[in-house]
Amino acid sequence: MRWTQTLIPTMKEDPSDAEIPSHRLMLRAGLIRQLMAGAYTYLPLGYRALRKAEAIVREEMERAGAVEVFMPALQPIELFERTGRKSAFGNVLINFLVARGDRKVHMALGPTHEEVVTDLVAHHISSYRQLPLTLYQIQTKFRNEERPRFGVLRTSEFLMKDAYSFHSSLAQLEETYRKMYEAYCRIFARCGLDYVAVEAESGPIGGDASHEFMVPAGNGEDSIVRCANCTYGANLERAETGRKTLLPTPPKEAAPLKTVSTPKVTTIEQVAKLLKIRPDQMIKTLIYVADEQPIAVLIRGDHEANENKVRRALSAGEIKLADEQTILKVTGAPVGFAGPVGLKCDIIADHDVPLIENAVAGANAADAHVTGVTFGRDYNLKATFDLRNAGDGDPCPKCGNRLELVHGIEVGHVFKLGTKYSISLNATYLDEKEQRNPIIMGCYGIGVNRIIASLAETSHDANGLIWPLAVAPYEVLVVTLNATDAETTKVAEQYVKDLEAAGVDVLYDDRDVRPGVKFKDADLVGIPLRIVIGGKGLQQGQVEIKWRTADAPEIAPVKDGARHALRMLAAKKDEQGRLVG
RNA sequence: CGGGGCGUAGCUCAGCCUGGCUAGAGCGCCAGCUUUGGGAGCUGGAAGUCGCAGGUUCGAAUCCUGUCGCCCCGACCA
């Protein structure tokens, strides 16, 4: 493709609206343009990259035994009503009434396709003999994001690969889940992404029923925890710490328990400021209601309670923060003055709580706190639990090494769904014993745009994008130094022809502009291999071939340059193929 | 949905506080000449409903009110 025949509107200056690297570079390199908040046009370069990623996803899905379908983006609202997701999605679900004759048809733009695919399968699968089955599609999804942001990372319209598997047993689901997990690893590795597979909240099935594939990036919206030493990784909701119960014996010379007046001072920060102490010297006492029973949850003042962990520790079905009346009943005080000493309900505490010496807590009386709170003397616990969010420096639950907290971009998610949708949409099969059972499902999503955005976000330098060969819009950029010189043009065109004949994607910068402009654009756009033709080099019978990431070019004779480039590409592909395995 | 910021040429921005001449600059674009290995120089040129609506005023890009759009922080994110 000739540069002069396509549309690559590069920008010399940073657009003022774009703050994070991926957004800025995708705009500057002419990959995308914004239409409105949360909706972007993919220009030729951006769309080529997107399609390369899509092709890799498709190949690996097929390899894993999934079969492709294409379902409508337009969906009847009834399906979402049947699964209860019309209200679960709320405003996120784009839906509207359409006039049809004298009727109004209520439809939605698909935010995902569990309903549609389950409905399809409900009509066409009836026997265990037809299972397992995995269907997938690559299609535009619509979600009315409350706040689209970060360029292409969070939009209201996006390209997603979604796969759904159907099974007659949990073992069968397990098998497909494993295949999908492996396919995802291959996909992200082939795309050249540095990714982490982390455990995620698993919902009704429990266990290791859900993994997210995250690309570590400072601007990522999700917080994940990973071990610097072993393979352990989890999102913040899920991440465990390797801490153990440590119940200290009360020191002999502990400070006395003392009540101090703290009128209208209710938050950790306010109390810490008033008493001139640090938040980590305080005990945060949260009153929850777990399956109708009030329970006090103790957390160190500077930590955050993790409700999922609290729920699991209590083996409760549902927990929520208590209302004011419950708090008044249990603590005898309004909100903000709860503490472990003399509390009229059960107490559950995080591992770090009893270790706080001379702690400060609410006094269970209005406008008062107590100081000198000492474990074993003023309150007691039989055991402690992991109840707070994991953080930097916590021990790894697998190997005991240090965990680190990093931000990440979620590019994929695999999930064992169970029978939620098959039950509500009546998707059943008949087993060997002629018993009717709901089909067991799994679902597997990949944000294709996010693959591209994550690469832009993490793979660039001061001069521009750096594409991995597999996803680059073009593999080779042929640059002429003087587009008006007949000899230069002749050589360049022969190169383009030879490389294209060998199956290489070539962009030919044939613009009649100064070399400096071409070099700057070449770096900005980030095509992996650059071949420069013209100038002194050509006079000496040479061309320059340079990786985007290399400091200096390789020099090849004009006659051999195309073959030389092909050898370089082949070597690189080999190297990357070995990484995927 | 709460908080903050910004809308002036294709892009980046000045002008606004303190109203007043024909609304400016750099980059980009067009023409010509020169130049040709890291975003060239000179000359000439085209290009703006100053987001939109209303108000105040002799006079509004500038002041006031409303409204729309975009960005950022937070809440939310099956």
Give descriptors for this structure.
five-stranded mixed sheet, 28% helix, BirA Bifunctional Protein, domain 2, nine-stranded mixed sheet, Rossmann fold, alpha+beta, 15 helices, 3 domains, 581 residues, YbaK protein, RNA-binding, single chain
Structure commentary:
- There is one protein chain.
- This protein is of the alpha+beta class.
- It has three domains: 18-74 and 109-240 and 405-456, 2-Layer Sandwich (BirA Bifunctional Protein, domain 2), CATH 3.30.930; 258-373, Alpha-Beta Complex (YbaK protein); 474-580, Rossmann fold.
- 28% of the residues lie in helices and 28% in strands.
- It contains 15 helices and 30 strands.
- The strands form eight sheets. Strands 3, 7, 8, 9, 10, 11, 12, 20 and 23 form a nine-stranded mixed sheet that branches. Strands 27-26-28-29-30 form a five-stranded mixed sheet, with helices on both faces. Strands 16-14-15-17 form a four-stranded mixed sheet.
- Strand 11 (222-227) and strand 12 form a beta hairpin.
- Helix 12 runs parallel beside helix 15 (561-580).
- It is globular.
- The two termini are 32 Å apart.
- The relative contact order is 0.13.
- The mean pLDDT is 93.
- It binds one RNA strand of 78 nucleotides through helix 4, helix 13 and helix 14.
CATH superfamily of the largest domain: Bira Bifunctional Protein, Domain 2
Oligomer classification = single chain
Shape: globular
How many strands in all? Answer: 30
What structural class do the secondary elements suggest?
alpha+beta
The largest sheet is:
9 strands, mixed
The helicity comes to: 25-40%
**Rg for CA atoms:** 30 Å
CATH architecture of the largest domain: 2-Layer Sandwich
- For the record, the CATH class of the largest domain is Alpha Beta
Estimate the strand proportion. Answer: 25-35%
How far apart the termini lie comes to 32 Å
Number of helices: 15
Mean pLDDT: 93
- Spans of at least 5 consecutive residues with low confidence: none
Tally of separate domains: 3
CATH domain fold name of the largest domain: BirA Bifunctional Protein, domain 2
